Amino acid sequence: MLYWLTALSDGGDFFNLFRYITFRAGGAFLTALIFGFVFGKPLINVLRKKQGKGQPIRDDGPEGHFVKAGTPTMGGLLIVGALLTATLLWARWDNPFVWMVMFVTLAFALIGFVDDYAKVSKQNTAGVPGKVRLALGVAIAAAAAVWASWHHPDALQNQLALPVFKDVLLNLGLFYIPFSIIVIVGSANAVNLTDGLDGLAIMPVMIAAGTLGIIAYAVGRVDFSEYLDVHYVPGTGEILIFTAALFGGGLGFLWYNAPPAAVFMGDTGSLALGGALGAIAVATKHELVLAIVGGLFVVEALSVIIQVLYFKRTGRRVFLMAPIHHHYEKKGWAEPTIVIRFWIISLILAMIGLATLKVR
């Protein structure tokens, strides 16, 4: 919205700053961060009052989690609120990719909110049936995939770009939409599975968002895309504002989610943020790079898939408990140790993902 202040500019004054994506990204970051600090404590107080017993704790979970009983959930409302407010304030409203990413974020947040509400009101961990959540997620992702495809350049429509390999595109044809759905829905659920320890999910999400924001800015500029030999996608640079807002809102949430957590993200936050990462990857034609940057989420999801399939086949378990962060808890690792080491892994993977921009 503030972008339109450029109409008051003569080209050499303060209002001219609003033309620059980097300036508005900085504004979005600060806005979301301040939003988190201002509304964080009041929101937690409301959630604690309304939820009573807070998020239900699994009976078969690690023993150390029982001390967390009574901690309120739905903290994702703080992140999503900060994120959408800052983006609406600082981003251009005529950019289709920004609206696509915000649509996915809000829609998945609503699914997560209903799921969290069901868990809290019934005081069990079942929530909304998985098939219902999956069907809704697929519908949202399908709309976003079609939305993105319409606004991609003709030469990139229905194409899959391969990292590292210069100018290589795979024409997926009719399979592009289903592939994009898998990326968005898979990302949403992978982040959801990762959100199991205090502070575990939010920092890797912020790292991945920051990385994808840099990629979006690069592929959205002709000069940068030519220099880096990546495919130019007009308009995606504006996504940097969204990712900057996510980073700021994430920091504001982490202030209250740091061990011991005063509030949990809940499905409200994890589904929304995971869906957003997938949507950004689809918009920027970096779907495969997301698997590198978000490699931690991939491992968490794979650990659950492997555990379930192997148990059904043999009656035995590969891991002491899935997702894999619970496996290390069962092995005796302290929760802060797991969280910080997983943060480090996320940062390393982000650097590898960024390297794919130049390694050609």
From TrEMBL:
Region forming the signal peptide: none
Reactions accelerated catalytically: UDP-N-acetyl-alpha-D-muramoyl-L-alanyl-gamma-D-glutamyl-meso-2,6-diaminopimeloyl-D-alanyl-D-alanine + di-trans,octa-cis-undecaprenyl phosphate = di-trans,octa-cis-undecaprenyl diphospho-N-acetyl-alpha-D-muramoyl-L-alanyl-D-glutamyl-meso-2,6-diaminopimeloyl-D-alanyl-D-alanine + UMP
GO CC list: plasma membrane
One of the protein's GO biological processes: regulation of cell shape
Pathway terms, separated by semicolons: Cell wall biogenesis; peptidoglycan biosynthesis
Pfam families given in the database record: Glycos_transf_4, MraY_sig1
Protein name: Phospho-N-acetylmuramoyl-pentapeptide-transferase
Binding positions (Mg(2+)): N192, D267
Enzyme class: transferase
This enzyme's EC code(s): 2.7.8.13
Compartments in which it is found: Cell membrane; Membrane
Positions of transmembrane segments: 20-40, 74-91, 97-118, 130-148, 168-188, 200-219, 239-256, 263-282, 288-311, 338-357
Organism the protein comes from: Tritonibacter multivorans
Molecular function, one GO term: metal ion binding
Membrane topology category: Multi-pass membrane protein
Keywords, alphabetical: Cell cycle, Cell division, Cell membrane, Cell shape, Cell wall biogenesis/degradation, Magnesium, Membrane, Metal-binding, Peptidoglycan synthesis, Transferase, Transmembrane, Transmembrane helix
Alphabetical list of InterPro entries matching this protein: Glycosyl_transferase_4, PNAcMuramoyl-5peptid_Trfase, PNAcMuramoyl-5peptid_Trfase_CS
Family, per entry: Belongs to the glycosyltransferase 4 family. MraY subfamily.
Cofactor entry: Mg(2+)
